[in-house]
């Protein structure tokens, strides 16, 4: 690399660090083996895409039309799938090699929503028939729940699946414009099959939303199947590499066997049966994605902060704190630049390790649910709702602040920051709107306090509500005692307790 | 228009309003005549561009490559200039017909920086020679101050203008990569002339930054003049209709007469003279743009809030506060949606009228400066710094919140919101980085308190620092008295006084 003031400043900064970065990376991702395998996989895919040479500007900064970006997303998604199939790993199930949420490609719903929807809701027979096709990429699926007029409010969904006992088929139909399926990843041009949420109508009875497997496109020529109108929703603030799409169904027929029937069943004679307890399981697909978002968003925030930190180390501007006239100061030397970066980096580590707890709790829930124990559902729901809302807010605001810390250069696309900010700001909305999720974690906490006051048992996660003796007595630590994690934990518990009690008494 | 649930809800909402919107518009823009003339001008330009029919999607949502957007910006800028010349008005000096800052076209610096730089710094002879060419569009100018390595820190600028007494010329030169001129609007492909900031070197002496008029491109074929390397800075978070550019000068010669010489002069024999008092005038060009930004950013925030309000009136989601099962609620009925919209709309009106004070103060400063009275400069500098930082922050955050209030639909480009947010977030950086400006208004206020405590006179704008008798006595109003503007003003004065005193004693 050419030697100039900036490269010299960067080398100096790097040489002055005392942290073993590889050791830290292994700590973050759990095992040295995982880190090495991930890096090897990232390298193979970047090489396959011709983007491994980081001294060359990636195509996305010169070929910027909607069509160009979609093509790049398609190439990225296919290269990732090919690599996972060939090398038998799952490193790109959730993220692209650039740590974008996998939504950033037309393969966005394949392994994180379509296949789990099948796994959680399909019968053994259905799973045996469809999962091998989906996993091997012979069909490409999307999870089609949201409609033009209906977002996360599933009960409002209008699409119907009417049982026709004569032909033993369902008729999938979009009765209004507002019932048009809207947003599913890859629906625009790419996906062949959809797990479509529709109201089951049998014998004139509306049995509420259920999931139906619908073939959307011909496997021969990719054209929409008869009766389905489809297209792209258009340019977005981010994720333009994916063809989030719309679909409208005009009396589309599918065999009865394509309703996912683990939790509810429709018999040949039109008899409907439902296990209300098992129905809770279908909700856990939403929890899966919501629970994984904190970990992914935290890493994208870390990317933004890394860019801003590097920039701050090499960018010189003004006379600096020393008011020295002979050279301009590196902007990292300014107190407000330093403080904003450092406090956000600290928060990012905290959120990263917090997201691990989210993952573990979700895995435990699934493990227990497989043994018919659903008792963890309320607390995992509350935890993922709170973590998703908190981390996506902090990540979007933090990345935007990192962008501002780079001044005009952060406004340029080649800084990478506008794309990161654009992707992160979407997180406040999808997989549960944050304001709604805040209300859900709030309701859960207030309910736990109710239970405590009524002498009923509470969730182990909020045991602190019972443990704190007097919320009005301040923490008695002094000086360096504040560095003790136990003291810090006590402070957080006290604070959480005080705030929950305050909110509870204010209502 | 087709009649459906949404159009019906909108008609109902509009019919229920009690405000005369035209009267309100006239109040906002000052006079009925102005409103009518503006609207007529907007209509003519939109018609000329073929975008007047608002039921058709504008080109910017389908033709989205960098080249397409630049072409659209060029057409918009030219249509605006043609209309102003033909109909003799100034409605598009600062904004496009879509209320974007004029930066959004390659004509971005013409009337707001290039011509004012000439007016403020050129001699009568220079103005007579160049202003008619600039104003009529025979040449297209840009204000070229920022360099790749140097933003708002003018003293750090590296470009040199070395006087050659033999030929009576200046040699304009970019000695390093970091001295490359960077960012000026239209510099990429469009502008023919630049008001270039460069260090004046005469007789081996560095006399600091001065402004030089440099021809950048041939008026015949638009090609760069010999010795000048130019291009576009690339894709940005916003303003992609403009070719913000870079330029590097390799020993480019211009006649001595092209240094703007009102405040400093270089004689034929190389003698340098400078009027330190008059030199303050050159700074007022920066104040001009900074002072106008609050008004423009406020209107763009108002656009975002208008979109979000309309959406909230027609979007139905969930069961609503009444938990009524027969119909979904309009999201405007939810308390948090209602509160966020209403409080931001109120703030927007306050900032709009506040920006008027900014304009008036700037005009008064210019009026007094024309009579050699520069006494208003410190207070106008502080006012514009504070207003610019406050309004651009509030506008960017408010528009992003408006975008979130529209859920997934706010993530789509056709909502108009991503473009508004992208443009507004740039405002934290250009024309003075907000963190730097906060420090400047802070320093001004603390200095005024120093003066007060030393028994010296203070600026009339901060008279409240002297007037409040005891900052510890709370406002004694009750109930509806809080609706009295005088009471509200007292509260704001008390609060400002208390905060300034607190900050002063903390340092």
TrEMBL record, chains A, B:
Span of domain Acyl-CoA oxidase C-alpha1: 283-446
GO-annotated molecular function: acyl-CoA oxidase activity; FAD binding; fatty acid binding
Cellular localisation: Peroxisome
Cofactor(s) the protein requires to work: FAD
Domain spans labelled Acyl-coenzyme A oxidase N-terminal: 22-139
Protein name according to UniProt: Acyl-coenzyme A oxidase
Lipid metabolism among keywords: yes
The UniProt record lists the keyword ATP-binding: no
Gene3D superfamilies cross-referenced by the UniProt entry: Acyl-CoA dehydrogenase/oxidase, N-terminal domain, Butyryl-CoA Dehydrogenase, subunit A, domain 2, Butyryl-CoA Dehydrogenase, subunit A, domain 3
Domain of life: Eukaryota
GO annotation terms (biological process): fatty acid beta-oxidation using acyl-CoA oxidase; lipid homeostasis
Record keywords: FAD, Fatty acid metabolism, Flavoprotein, Lipid metabolism, Oxidoreductase, Peroxisome
Family, similarity comment: Belongs to the acyl-CoA oxidase family.
Entry's Gene Ontology cellular component terms: peroxisome
């Amino acid at each position: 690399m050419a030697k100039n003031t900036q490269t010299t400043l960067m080398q100096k900064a790097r040489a002055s660090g005392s942290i073993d970065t590889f050791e830290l990376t292994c700590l973050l991702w759990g095992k040295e083996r995982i880190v090495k395998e991930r890096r090897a996989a990232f390298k193979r895919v970047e090489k396959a895409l011709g983007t491994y040479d980081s001294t060359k500007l990636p195509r996305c900064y010169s070929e910027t039309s909607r069509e160009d970006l979609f093509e790049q997303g398609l190439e990225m998604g296919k290269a990732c799938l090919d690599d996972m199939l060939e090398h038998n790993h799952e490193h790109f199930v959730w993220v692209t090699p650039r740590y974008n949420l996998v939504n950033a490609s037309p393969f966005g719903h394949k392994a994180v929503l379509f296949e789990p929807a099948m796994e959680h809701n399909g019968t053994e027979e259905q799973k045996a028939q469809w999962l091998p096709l989906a996993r091997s990429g012979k069909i490409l699926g999307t999870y089609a729940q949201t409609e033009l007029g209906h977002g996360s409010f599933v009960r409002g969904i209008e699409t119907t699946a009417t049982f026709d006992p004569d032909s033993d088929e369902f008729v999938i139909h979009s009765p209004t414009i507002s019932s048009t399926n809207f947003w599913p990843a890859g629906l625009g041009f790419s996906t062949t099959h959809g797990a479509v949420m529709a109201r089951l109508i049998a014998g004139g009875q509306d049995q509420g939303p259920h999931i139906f497997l619908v073939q959307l496109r011909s496997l021969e020529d990719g054209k929409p199947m008869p009766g389905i109108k489809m297209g792209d929703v258009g340019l977005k603030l981010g994720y333009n590499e994916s063809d989030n799409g719309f679909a409208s169904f005009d009396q589309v027929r599918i065999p009865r066997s394509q309703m996912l029937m683990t939790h509810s069943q429709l018999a040949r004679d039109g008899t409907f049966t439902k296990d209300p307890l098992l129905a809770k399981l279908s909700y856990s697909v939403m929890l899966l994605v919501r629970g994984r978002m904190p970990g992914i968003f935290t890493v994208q925030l870390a990317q933004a902060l890394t860019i801003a930190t590097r920039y701050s180390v090499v960018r010189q501007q003004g006379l600096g704190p020393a008011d020295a006239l002979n050279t301009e100061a590196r902007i990292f030397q300014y107190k407000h630049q330093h403080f904003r970066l450092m406090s956000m980096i600290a928060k990012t580590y905290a959120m990263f390790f917090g997201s691990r707890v989210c993952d573990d709790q979700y895995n435990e829930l699934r493990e227990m649910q497989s043994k018919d124990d659903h008792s963890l559902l309320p607390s995992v729901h509350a935890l993922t709702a709170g973590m998703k809302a908190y981390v996506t807010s902090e990540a979007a605001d933090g990345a935007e602040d990192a962008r501002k810390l780079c001044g005009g250069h952060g406004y340029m696309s080649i800084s990478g920051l506008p794309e990161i900010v654009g992707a992160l700001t979407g997180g406040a909305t999808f997989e549960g709107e944050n304001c709604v999720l805040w209300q859900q974690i709030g309701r859960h906490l207030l309910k736990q306090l109710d239970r405590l006051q009524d002498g009923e048992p509470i969730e182990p996660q909020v045991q602190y509500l019972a443990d704190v003796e007097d919320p009005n007595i301040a923490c008695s630590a002094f000086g360096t005692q504040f560095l003790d994690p136990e003291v810090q934990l006590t402070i957080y518990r006290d604070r959480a307790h005080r705030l929950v009690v305050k909110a509870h008494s204010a209502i």
